[in-house]
UniProtKB/TrEMBL annotation, chains A, B:
InterPro entries for this protein: aa-tRNA-synt_IIb, aa-tRNA-synth_II, aa-tRNA-synth_II/BPL/LPL, Anticodon-bd, Anticodon-bd_dom_sf, Gly-tRNA_synthase/POLG2, GlyRS-like_core, tRNA-synt_gly
Annotated protein name in UniProt: glycine--tRNA ligase
Enzyme class: ligase
Record-listed E.C. numbers: 6.1.1.14
UniProt key word Nucleotide-binding: yes
Length: 737, 737
């Protein structure tokens, strides 16, 4: 049952997620976009099994209902006794009830969870998004001009969260790991993206409404059709359901032709007009532009930041004292001209990436700090578990590496560091898993690849990709630019190695092949070891062989006197090799959106008449660390508030004063909605109260100490619990309303 | 002599600088690019005067030499006495020497300084740039593909400097001023940039080589021609020199036709081929692209970040509690597809801007924190001083504002804050001036505009523009989008105002004008107060007036019974107005480049055999704050180094360990070249030395204290002098070599 791997549950919350960054890596191996869009919203197969058996049961029950209906009609026609007919009708009604019950179960099963769950996810998202948009965490860009799909602004609190996330990223990765951070332009000349493969292969398949010209992503239309059918049409049998699921599971492997054929077969039309659709054709997702005034130098807005690092490898390696391993990092904007952006901040046309390229000797992928993460335990979802339909399990990272589940120490180290990064930001560790790429998702050259996936109301979202990409990228740029992007290991003393030497005898070859001599020489020199040794053997036994010269497009006869093939011993002083690259790539916008959802909750107001919104951001990411409220509007309190504000500024604590006359309860509610962890209320000129957002507990602290107390907690030097223990408690019940 | 204002000195170091950002503002007022490229490398006129008198003196001397030569020849022809002829020849030789001396003076005058100065500036720049590129402060982008003009990467130390500058900008402006920071996309739909004027007017004039198609900036070619002529051809007279200078001074005012005519008149050809050139035509400097798959939605890469703020005004005003003043800020990439990028990091095709839009009531431009900057004193270059040929002077900011030189308090406040920002970064206050825009540089709507200019080897470079742009931008977007971008001042109690009421009597107008009634009604209602009152008076006196209806294109007779015009008293509860915007706009790359030059110096090595490079970055911006060196390669010292490294990481101090066996002197030299302020040398397991970069002084500190000492100085909690006083001095003379 290959089509069950991965199992696709096509609920409204499942989706077609794509990493913001390097999944590209995967699809470059294949002419089709086979793994560009992995559908990894996998579910345990028990569910699929139950769905399948439900469909069977439903079909059986339907037959039973029909058979029984016929029986009843037959009894009536035969004028059977009333009691006999009544009994038959009662049995029929029972069957109908049973059928209806199975329908309900099936309905629940295909919507990916119980119906209520889906509804409440939807409602939760609505509440969170309403708060986020109302408080300007983000805003559809160019709103006054009715916006542009897939473009969003971060408003003041969102922008502050983003800059906190990036500052922590820099601290956690660049500073702590001594990475070489670079900053390259977004405008990129064509040659670079030709080398990387983006110009030729960074495409999605598109169809057009044949009358209006409106564009759609071909796979989205097919997917929506299959999902709709599976969810809403309960009459389709188990066989048809299996077929549709097979289509969903193999969606990313379908060629343009196959996709077009399916669209025709299912009679899919343009969603808006019901007009017929064109055949699918590839659309390049890069924003194209032109560099300079001539119009002759095509360029693109980079689809990822990584290429800027690869093309600088030589200089960075030199900067690092010609030593491996080292990591380079870059934070910056990337661009993808999506055909039809969906899901708010999760699939956008411009986004911030933070990427790390860790260059390492392919023969030694150990990591000096590996021991620091070896005991971390978290949800991992290895390939085998996905194939056998199990779910993600808590696994000790050290075990995953030592068993070979994770390919190497360095990859494991970064998985551990990403786990620490995300959970310290406030991502719920129970809704974070590391999912290994399936074989068909990975590029042929990739050694291993894991995605940090975060569960939110849209399902499991790929937020960080951590891939061992071997030497692929550096080789691609070496080949295109002619500049060797290699590292060297100097031997402490020279080593003796045996080398194959192919020496064409140009004089003889010239006599034999005249003008074609050069082609033959080059072809001979290009032989690999196996070919050369076979030729050597053949020449020694037969004296002449037929040899195919591709640049001539034909075989030529090679005689023994035309080439000498031998093995020679040489002394080597160093080993020159193309480093492997291990690449953790972070979709910052996706992480932030998931963080918003994981931080959001509601609680009843004190009067119980409304639900108040709260973001439980840790101080590290909170957009504002502290608010300062004079309890009532009076000059004395306002002066104290200004003194505290000044000391907060000196301490580098972002804060806000609210001197409106609004009730203190309303002001707390406003500040909770922005996720501000602490509020200082000025209710005397000597002592003030500090309130913690989630517990709503308050302590009394002197005016002089207030800023320092807040700073110590936001800087992580002590916890709120420490503060609660040390300072007198404020017990006025009226504060929160 | 209008052409002397501004005086252009066309030395090789002068230039055609344009602010990275909003000079656009200035040129939007005029159909020509009159002030898009202000040439503000002004010089005191004494110099120009001396040049002019030198040219005159040279011409006179030339005539004298010729006349005397003729006289000598005449004497010889007349066979005068030898002593007579010798005396005449001696006099001629003296005249020739005098002429030669004047030539030298003139040569020096036209090259903008003495020739040696220009040379040493060039040499200084070469030394600085060599160090910057070799140590990867910056790198030409895509170097392995031979680069792209006008695109640069920041390598590790440059990237660190940049992120320190931006972090300090955020602290100094966003945090300390409670600004609303936003983060908008670079991809921008056409409608936004149509409203702002960029689509129609953000152009440079270009000419093409008629045979090869190579593009040049028309004004650059004309400018280069004039400069070359003025500097290298000393035979041109004062009149011709004046003409060329006039061309240079008015370069930015020239229309495409006038520019083309000059190019023809001077016979300017393509510099590379000497082929004829096309007529000049406008080239839009924005990178164009297409949003979405249809190809029907043109978009551009934003040329500045400001528009993202303006279109969000309504939401931001609401976020600020519907209160003015408030400031919004944005840091981000901006793009300009320069025709021919020049001068390294100073004119590039992609750059980071940091922009502030401070929205303020046009009737109250006071600033609550103005008193904090009022006593600052620094170089200012008001319009009048430029016009009268004086140079920049130290002026107390408070005086400049109170005298009206600076238009208002808020503008003055930002000028002061920018001064503090730049000097705290390490910009030399003696090479920083605030230059006011001349009347012809400013847009008609701008109230006042000052540029922070920093002097570097390329001349005075515009790095920050601080403009009071009045209501222009908000009005432009209101008009285009139909969304009112206004603020309201609520009155504490309603105010009585007299309002003009124009009430067309539609029935009478309908009878008189039938189908044209609507046009007449609209025209009547559109009258301004003056027109309406004149009509009222005329109707009262004459009973009928001729009235021009522009939508009909003709006069119509209006009778007394067709319209009632009166003044009525109304109660108003608020005043609705479009806020003014004061905009400080920072070209981050330019500031960083100038900072590099201001920080760079060389000093002889201890042996005196070479010059060592040093960047005297303050700890605030230094890319790495500290290096850690084990004095010799030994496990014990390396372990101590690791302990110190760990405590530096905990303290958040970026640092680097160097365990190579290189001599300590060489390691110091390497670290000085990166501008690292402190080096910890491990020469025992208990105490270590800390060396300060510029003084090369060393103190002895315990291993435990080392990180904290470095942290306290880099955080600005104490100075190196404090440390020097407190700790024992290390006096080993051998440390630095």
């Amino acid at each position: 049952m290959r089509f069950l791997i991965p199992l696709i549950y096509s609920s409204s919350t499942s989706g077609h997620y794509r990493i913001t960054s390097r999944l590209l890596s995967a699809y470059l191996t294949k002419p089709q976009r086979s793994t560009l869009h992995p559908s990894f919203n996998c579910q345990p197969p028990s569910m699929a099994a139950s769905e399948e058996s439900l469909r069977k049961a439903l079909a059986e029950k339907q037959s039973a209902v029909e058979a029984h209906g016929n029986a009843v009609r037959a009894l009536k026609a035969a004028k059977a006794s009333k009691s006999e007919i009544d009994a038959a009708i009662e049995a029929l009604n029972i069957l109908k009830l049973e059928k209806s019950s199975i329908e309900k179960q099936l309905q629940a099963a295909v919507s990916g969870s119980d119906g209520d769950g889906a509804l409440s996810r939807e409602a939760f998202r609505q509440a969170a998004v309403n708060t986020l948009e109302r408080r300007l965490f983000y805003i559809p860009s160019f709103k006054i001009y009715r916006g542009v799909a897939g473009l969003y602004d971060y408003g003041p609190p969102g922008c502050a969260v983003k800059s906190n996330v990036l500052a922590f990223w820099r601290q956690h990765f660049v500073l702590e790991e001594n990475m070489l951070e670079v900053d390259c332009p977004c405008v990129t000349p064509e040659v670079v993206l030709k080398a990387s493969g983006h110009v030729d292969k960074f495409t999605d398949l598109m169809v057009k409404d044949e009358k209006t010209g409106t564009c759609y992503r071909a796979d989205h239309l097919l997917k929506d059709f299959c999902n709709e059918k599976l969810q809403k049409d309960l009459t389709i049998g188990a066989q048809k359901a299996a077929e549709l699921k097979h289509v969903l599971a193999t969606l990313d492997d379908l060629s343009a032709e196959a996709l077009g054929a399916k669209i025709k077969e299912y009679g899919i039309t343009a969603p808006d007009t019901k007009n017929p659709l064109s055949d699918p054709y590839p659309f390049n997702l890069m924003f194209q532009t032109s560099i300079g005034p001539s119009g002759l130098s095509p360029g693109y807005m980079r689809p990822e930041t990584a290429q800027g690092i690869f093309v600088n490898f030589k200089d960075l390696y030199y900067y690092n004292g010609n030593k491996l391993p080292f990591a380079a990092a870059q934070i910056g904007q990337a661009f993808r001209n999506e055909i039809s952006p969906r899901q708010g901040l999760l699939r956008v046309r411009e986004f911030t990436l933070a990427e790390i390229e860790h260059f390492v000797d392919p023969e030694d992928k150990s990591h000096p700090k590996y021991s620091e993460v070896v005991d971390l335990e978290f949800l991992m979802f290895p390939r085998e578990e996905q194939m056998s339909g199990q779910s993600a399990k808590k696994i000790r990272l050290g075990d995953a590496v030592s068993k070979g589940t994770v390919n190497n120490e360095t990859l494991g180290y970064f998985i551990g560091r990403v786990y620490l990064f995300l959970t310290r930001l406030g991502i719920d560790k129970d809704r974070l898993r590391f999912r290994q790429h399936l074989a068909n998702e990975m590029a042929h050259y990739a050694a291993d690849c894991w995605d940090a996936e975060i569960e939110c109301s849209y399902g499991w979202i790929e937020c960080v990709g951590i891939a061992d990409r071997s030497a692929y990228d550096l080789r691609a740029h070496s080949d295109k630019s002619g500049v060797p992007l290699v590292a060297a290991e100097k031997f402490s003393e020279p080593r003796e190695v045996e080398k194959l030497v192919i020496a064409p005898v140009k004089k003889e070859l010239g006599l034999a092949f005249k003008g074609s001599q050069k082609n033959v020489v080059e072809a001979l020199e290009a032989m690999n070891e196996k070919e050369a040794l076979e030729m050597k053997a053949a020449l020694e036994s037969k004296g002449e062989v037929e040899f195919y010269v591709c640049t001539l497009g034909k075989n030529v006869p090679i005689k023994k006197n035309m080439v000498s093939i031998s093995k020679e011993k040489k002394k080597e002083h160093q080993r020159v090799f193309t480093p492997s690259v291990i690449e953790p790539s972070f979709g910052i916008g996706r992480i932030i959106y998931c963080l918003f959802e994981h931080s959001f909750y509601t609680r009843p107001s004190k009067a119980g008449d409304e639900q108040l919104n709260v973001f439980r951001f840790p101080p590290l990411v909170a957009p504002i660390k502290c608010t300062v409220f004079p309890l009532v509007q009076n000059q004395q309190y306002e002066d104290v508030a200004k003194v505290i504000s000044k000391s907060l500024t000196t301490a580098g604590i972002s804060h806000k004063i609210d001197i409106t006359g609004t009730s203190i309860g309303k002001r707390y509610a406003r500040t909770d909605e922005l996720g501000v962890p602490f509020a200082i209320t000025v209710d005397s000129t000597k002592d003030v109260t500090i309130r913690e957002r989630d517990s709503k507990l308050q302590v009394r602290v002197s005016v002089e100490e207030a800023a320092l107390v807040v700073k110590s907690v936001t800087d992580g030097l002590r916890t709120w619990e420490d503060v609660w223990e040390k300072y007198p408690h404020h017990t006025s019940g009226s504060a929160d309303d």
